[in-house]
TrEMBL record:
The keyword Transmembrane applies. GO terms for molecular function: ATP binding; phosphorelay sensor kinase activity. It catalyses: ATP + protein L-histidine = ADP + protein N-phospho-L-histidine. Residues 322-349 form a coiled coil. This is C4-dicarboxylate transport sensor protein DctB. Its EC number is 2.7.13.3. It comes from Paracoccus zhejiangensis.
Length: 595
């Protein structure tokens, strides 16, 4: 069968779906922020360019007006023109004006006599006409200075004229009028800007790239339906949400507007620009971003489709594996029936082996515990023989009494053979922990005297009562002392410290200054020993730990980091009369012991 761990991501690609959703959200956020930032930036750039272009247009306009303003002053002092007015001879005057027009590049030049009749002009169609009521004629005669006027010509377009009275012998004999060619500027503006309008001090449009705006105010001009070729070009703008708030509207369409003051008679120039160039640049960047996110999404969808293909292949493979497994199960069922029959026979063999192993462990434990009193008896017998040889019979009797005690103890140990196999059947009674330590020291006295081991002990005067089996408790303490003696054999200054104390629990600690324990984790395992072969069975600490556990306590070991050596500590619950506490049973449960 296929591995379940490899199928889970195929069945539940939740992280990939979340990744796709995050990509979409991130794309929307990035596009939104990019559009807003770029629109603002490009709009500001377009506005600055529009203002710079307006400043350039204003410069051209002022230059044209200033250049034209000088011409009437020069022509009004021309002797030839003054002579023709005085002599009423205008045969060559028009040609002279045409030459001047070509030289100074103005729109037109007209010479009027004192009655307002056009006597000479660069436009021969105007000869003989009467402009008596025209502002440029009236204002020129009234002020005797060069005056600027705006009037309508025969075509309906605005004409911007500078005029001045021609004076001879203190009398005005005519008026010279020079029209500035501002329409030429309009045409140049129309080829560059979207829309430009020049307003006079009254707010009326006097110049505009849109002919229908002339003579109207700006709000009126913006409400006029423009010709398709002109206004569509000037005010065509996208109306979507991506633009900034517009400055003006034309039939619901947004435009950008800037206004600049012209330092001439209170005039103003208003320029308009569409958002087309802004949107083109912003959309170009947005298109690149969208393309990038589209590539990422395409990769994600490719991974999804690939996973689906892998899932399909996995399902087919799993189906084939299930069919093969079904066939194997049929064969295994028949094999299991045969194995069960053989298992019954094997179980009987294992049970017999377990009995033999348990018997071996018990025999090893009993031999280990009997070795200590036998060694002590051998020492006491040697001492008694020596005392009898020296005639000290009474002292020899004390040695025989100790041997009798050891024989009694050996009998108690053999009686514990059953307890070793079935824990918890010995009688529990209140025991003074100090008396058990003293008895263990007495048992170990021959071994302690045989060497140069310094033994120090700290035992309080007050009784420390615990609920335990006295013989088995002494057995534990003797085992710990025996291990300590073996541990300090190779030390120059062997030392063993025994401490008995109480707190929340009663405790006995045995500390030595030996080499310590290398493997604390395996220390209480059966048959684990650090001694040389033949010197130990590896059961002493395992048995001791089991006995202490039967008493409701625990046996711990640790290395002494400050002075070296090992520290073994037996911790037992204090005896409290009238209190019932739970004791472990051989079956692994708890039994209630009365205190």
């Amino acid at each position: 069968m296929t591995d379940t761990g490899t199928e889970t991501p195929l069945r539940n690609p939740w992280w990939l779906r979340i990744a796709v959703a995050l990509i979409l959200v991130t794309a929307a956020g990035v596009i939104w922020v990019t559009n807003a930032w770029l629109t603002e930036r490009f709009s500001e750039t377009t506005r600055v360019r529009l203002e710079l272009r307006s400043a350039l247009y204003i410069g051209n306009l002022r230059s044209e007006l200033q250049r034209t303003a000088v011409v009437p002053l020069l022509l009004a002092r021309d002797p030839a023109l003054i002579g023709s007015l005085n002599g009423q001879d205008f045969s060559t005057t028009s040609a002279r004006l045409m030459a001047a027009q070509k030289e100074i590049n103005v729109a037109s030049i007209r010479l009027l006599d004192a009655s307002g009749r056009v006597v000479a002009s660069t436009d021969r169609a105007l000869l003989g006409g009467n402009d008596l009521s025209q502002p440029y004629f009236v204002e020129a005669l009234r002020s005797r200075e060069t005056v600027f006027t705006v009037s309508k010509n025969e075509a309906g377009a605005n004409e911007f004229s500078y005029s001045r009275a021609v004076v001879a012998e203190g009398k005005a004999v005519g008026v010279i009028a020079v029209a500035a060619d501002l329409l030429r500027l309009e045409r140049s503006w129309a080829g560059i800007s979207d829309a430009v309008a020049v307003l006079d001090s009254a707010g009326t449009i006097v110049l505009s790239t849109e002919p229908r705006w002339r003579g109207l105010t700006l709000p009126e001009a913006l409400s006029v339906r423009s010709a398709p070729n002109a206004i569509d070009r000037a005010f065509q703008v996208t109306a979507d949400w991506t633009n900034q708030p517009p400055d003006a509207y034309l039939r619901g369409k947004a435009v950008m507007q800037t206004e600049t003051r012209i330092p001439f008679r209170g005039w103003r120039m208003v320029s308009f620009a569409t958002y087309d160039s802004i949107r083109e640049r912003v959309n170009a960047v947005l298109a690149l971003e969208i393309m990038g996110f589209a590539i990422i999404l395409a990769a994600a969808f490719y991974i999804l489709s690939r996973r689906e293909r892998e899932k399909s292949v996995a399902f087919m493979r799993e189906s084939a594996d299930l069919r093969a497994l079904n066939n194997r199960l049929k064969a295994e069922i028949a094999e299991r029936v045969r194995v069960q029959r053989e298992l019954r026979v094997a179980e009987q063999t294992v049970q017999q082996s377990s009995k033999l192993a348990a018997l071996g462990e018990m025999s090893a434990g009993v031999s280990h515990e009997l070795n200590q009193p036998l060694a002590a008896m051998k020492t006491y017998l040697a001492g008694a023989r020596l005392l009898l040889q020296r005639g000290r019979g009474e002292e020899a009797l004390s040695s025989f009494q100790r041997i009798d005690d050891l024989v009694e103890r050996m009998g108690a140990i053999t009686r514990q053979l059953k307890s070793f196999a079935r824990k918890g059947e010995e009688a529990m009674e209140p025991v003074d922990l100090r008396a058990s330590v003293s008895a263990a020291l007495t048992m170990m006295e021959p071994q302690l005297r045989s060497g140069v081991i310094r033994v120090s002990h700290s035992i309080p005067r007050e009784k420390i009562m615990v609920l335990a089996d006295r013989i088995r408790l002494e057995q534990v303490i003797i085992n710990l002392l025996r291990n300590a003696v073996d541990a300090v054999k190779s030390q120059r200054d062997p030392m063993i410290e025994i401490a008995v104390g109480t707190g929340s629990h009663a405790y006995v600690s045995v500390r030595d200054n030996g080499p310590g324990v290398a493997d604390l984790e395996k220390l209480f395992e059966p048959f684990f020993t650090t001694k040389k072969p033949g010197e130990g069975t590896g059961l002493g600490l395992a048995i001791s730990s089991g006995i202490v556990s039967d008493f409701g306590g625990r046996l711990t070991a640790q290395n002494n980091e400050t002075g070296g050596g090992a520290v073994f500590e037996v911790e037992l619950p204090l005896y409290e009369p009238g209190v019932r506490r739970r004791m472990p049973t051989p079956e692994g449960g708890d039994s209630v012991a009365a205190e």
